[in-house]
Design brief:
It is built from 10 helices and 10 strands. The chain is globular and about 55 Å long.
Length: about 325
Amino acid sequence: MFKSTDIVVVTGANGHVASHIVDQLLALPDGPVVRGTVRTQESASIILGHYPTHSRTGRLEIIVVPDMLAEGAFVEVVKGATHIAHVASPLVIGGIEDVAKQLLQPAMKGTLGILEAASQSSSVKAVVITSSFGAVFDPAEGWRAGHAYTSEDLNPITFEVAADPKLDLSSYPETWRAFVTYCASKVLAEKAAWTTSPTYSLCTILPTYIGGPSVLPLKDGAKSVSFSQALIWKTATESTLPTLDFPGWVHVSDVARAHIAALERGVTGRYIVSEGNHSYEKIKTWDTDSSAALKDLGLGSYIPLERTVVETVQQLLAAETLRLG
């Protein structure tokens, strides 16, 4: 259990998952100080304005880190911190000219940067990193009969293969070609984390597609949402269903709960977080074993897909109505 003297750092605090972590931490009675990071002063102002009381009392701090890849970017941020949720990471699906420079190195360097800063601070007790099911999934093999992906699985792609300008994506099944380098960035960042020798507990959360509403206002309506939220919106509003690439879904509140539980319990390990696998027609399909998170992190149960979809669509309908006047 957190103490009121604890300080929890949450990177990328204005993002879909991170904002829910911030929100749940602030909702804890006598909970910790939350120290979020964002890239711009505009984002900082939005968050502070969303929580005026917590901002005024010092329960919420927002620090602007314009470039999290800069040398020592997080050193001052983690000073005095007791727990860290590192959520910020580049999300780029396809269309990259220099994969190493634009995706792989930023993901790895950002992760190592905050872990290095944490190692320099004797106050840090626990760190949790937002990874992805893409760090588990092998896009060369895809979904195959009789195999349930678990946290023991590791995407086998190497830096050399993913960064190669001559990488032949046609050798991968067409469904997952656009995701190959993104999945590589997640597994390589995670591998980099596990090569460190931390003095604190280190845990990675591996969510599937994440649905559910946003905490912060959607000033640009449906244009403001995450990649996976947009998939739900597209499914609800367009006549053609999206291609079924990754059938796993989980509510953003459960993802946030998993991060917080990992910090509170000081858990070390990898945890897939997923309510279950579905097609876009809501038919159960392939297997993913996410039961360990329910037990080890004390999550109890996952929010059903129906609620995830309804809450996402309801919020977006309201936001689009407001945007369009």
